[in-house]
Amino acid sequence: ISSLAQLGSRLSQGDPVFSRLRLSVLAAGLGMVAALLISSPASASTSTYLKFTTTKAASSTVAYNPVVKQTATLYGQVGTHKKRTIKVQGRSAATSPWSRGTTVKTDKYGKFKFSITVPSKAGAVTYRALDAKAKSALKLTPEATLTTTTPWSTGFGDEFNDRDIAPWMQRAQNFSPNSRRACATGSPKAVSMTGKTVNLRAIPTATRTTACKAAVTAHFKAKYGKKYKTALKKFKNAGKTVLNGHISTGAANTVDMTKPGIASARIQFAKPKGQHASFWMRPVGGSAGDVREIDIIEYMGKGGANNGVWQFVYRPDSKGKTLKIKGSKSQLKALSKHGNKSYSGYHHYSAEWDGKGKVTLRIDGKQTFKNYVPPSGKWELILSTLTSDYELASLPWSSSKTGMMKVDWVRTWALASTAVATS
After folding, report:
1. CB 268 within 8 A of CB 345
2. What phi, psi does 159 have (nearest 5°)?
3. 264-277 confidence digits (pLDDT tens)
4. R_g (Cα) of the chain, nearest Å
5. b/e code 73-112 from CB counts within 10 Å (16+ = b)
6. How much of the chain, in percent, has pLDDT values that exceed 90?
7. In the predicted model, is pLDDT for residue 17 greater than 80?
8. Rounded CA gap, 264 and 298, in Å?
9. Which residues 6+ apart lie within 8 Å of 130 measured at CB?
10. How many CB atoms lie within 10 A of CB 257?
């Protein structure tokens, strides 16, 4: 302290030895002040950041999936701005204007998080956070960039924007007692094009057949035992046949299950029971005994078991016996919650496969079932509204009351490094 006092005294007296140091001391003092001014914001900047949850960094890369709703969470902190309204803005290029933005509030630590829907197109979007209450756009954080890649390429698809059924083909145009449809046959009359959707329905007829009556009687015997005759008398339409909407892509437009791919459809189902409408897949060109099948979605009407919603995988076991595999209890419970939504509006139903046999089924982008099916090269896509013999007693016996399955579109994708197999 005394040395500093002496230094101050000699400087004030104009001591020639120290007069030359005036300028350097002043410069050093200003440098110290500048250093203090700079160091304060610098230390604050350690608590001012913008990072993505995937990498905890200011940049992140996400691979877009066409059937999964993906989000990236943007975490931020704006120093001491506690419980302040922050506006998050984004732009796709440095020369583009910033978006109007969405507001979020910081917590007591000045932190916030913001959920961003991953865009479907490849590219990068840069984000920043602003003080929403500032008169001018006060930038509070460094910028962060989310880059999206699109590894999937589009394959076969149909938007059903015309009234031509092609490239789809009618399927199973005959009675199928071996498939428990002795009373039902596929028919073009049960398929209609509106210019916006393809509609499939079940159309009851007044035509009776002996084979149909025998099949229904056998079902009633199995269900009601000795009281089957009483139950059968109540079913006034026993023996009458039904026309079913049943179409497929056939061998002309197939997907290759030996390479990673996706098939999806946007569908609204009919509400009444007595029929089961489906979006499903089967191999083409295989042996007659090939039992493999993927039921991406099957809806059996309101009020049925599991609220009418099912997903199945069929495959042979090691002894050649057919395995019909459904989801676990928790998966079935999740499916049942979707029941009433099936007929009240359109939803997305999809299957994704890895090329090695693993198949993942989803509803509206959420996984509902995962299992294994031996892969092979060509599988057809199928849309149908079928009536099995055991369902007919629950079917409203009027074409105006059975409702219809409405399909908005069907689309497929393959990884960009592979190609969707088509003829």
Report:
1. yes
2. -90, -5
3. 999 999 999 999 99
4. 34
5. ebebbbbebeebebbbbbbeeeeeeeeebeebebeeebeb
6. 62
7. no
8. 14
9. 86, 87, 88, 89, 101, 137, 138, 139, 140
10. 26
Helix (H, G, I), strand (E, B) or coil at 222: helix
166, two tokens: 């092609």
Specify the amino acid at residue 55. T
Strand spans (E) along 38-122: 48-52, 59-63, 71-78, 85-91, 102-105, 111-117
SS3 259: coil
The position carrying tokens 């509030």 is 105
Largest CA distance in the chain: 129
Q: What 8-state DSSP symbol labels residue 65?
A: -
Structure tokens belonging to residue 70: 């993906």
Q: Which amino acid is at 195?
A: G
| DSSP assigned state of 181 | B
Which uninterrupted H or E stretch holds 128? strand 123-131
Please state the pTM of the whole predicted model: 0.80
- How many residues comprise the chain? 423
